[in-house]
Target: C4-dicarboxylate ABC transporter substrate-binding protein
Amino acid sequence: MKKVLAIMLLLVFMVVIAGCGGDKKAAPAEGKTEFKATMKLTSTQSATHPYMLGGAKFAELIKERTNGRITITLYPDSQLAKGERECLEALQQGTIDIYVGSTGPVGGFSPSMLITDLPFLFRDGAHVDKVLDGPIGRALLDDLDKSGLKGLAFWENGFRHLTNSKTAVKTPEEGKGLKIRTMENKVHLAAFKAAGLNPTPMAWGELYPALQQKVIDGQENPVAVFSSAKFYEVQKYFSLTGHVYSPAPMIISMKKWQAMPKADQEIFAKTALEVAAYQRKLNRDSEEKSLKEMEGKGLVVVRDVNKDAWIKAMQPAFDEYAKQFGKDKVDAILAVK
Ligand code: EAX
Model:
């Protein structure tokens, strides 16, 4: 009996040793990673919006640069989560991997990001690029770390413009009392209140039906959002106010980020920045053409907007929030040439 037991123990021992050896053989060779993943990239915008065109480019480059080990599937039109806030929550939980969206609800997760929402903070695209691609932008992305979100780069939504169904608006005076939707963003809300309009915060998904049913008169968004969501079907006047620049942080779930080998993290970080330049150019180059096309469909584009009047009208909101965010930080952005 003892003999049988001893033989059995020996056998078990041999199996364990063999098992360990097998594990060793399966481990990746030194310096060569075997990490594989399929990731989901989403936004609230349609497949033709520059967010998703950037997403497609990112997916293509990542597949190429990881020799097909990492593939990224695109989910436009809020297919994975109802709104931008819900997308960010899903990223924290790790049920969505990558997200591109405006700063609207990001401030609820990482308050420092709201500084970019100050009206008339950025002069033009060149100013935007210098600030967001420099140390100020990097610090804003790094602040996301604390919320379980890894910000890789600033892609863009673009300069936002006021649109409505009632009247050709050039000045705040002409927009007085207009009921408009803003994002769920307290800085935008304060800016439009200061200018004498009647703003109400609303999630993206409720916006088109609210415009269609005339629950509200207008909204504000960049050209690409307006055209790809076909807002020209429910809005008549497009005023080129450019009242605020809307950056779009490209964010990966911190859980997924930490599960990736360092070499792949480096590929992701580098590629996200490269696509930022591609995606911003694509967005900016398409704006004028897109406006012309929509004019052909009957949209009235108000080009001679009185910008100085808008800057002046929104100044109280700018001052109030500049104080909250830190005047030195705001001045540092304004000083970038
Ligand atoms: O991120 O909600 C909005 O108006 C945003 O511009 C849109 O969701 C893109």
The CA atoms of residues 24 and 30 lie 12 Å apart.
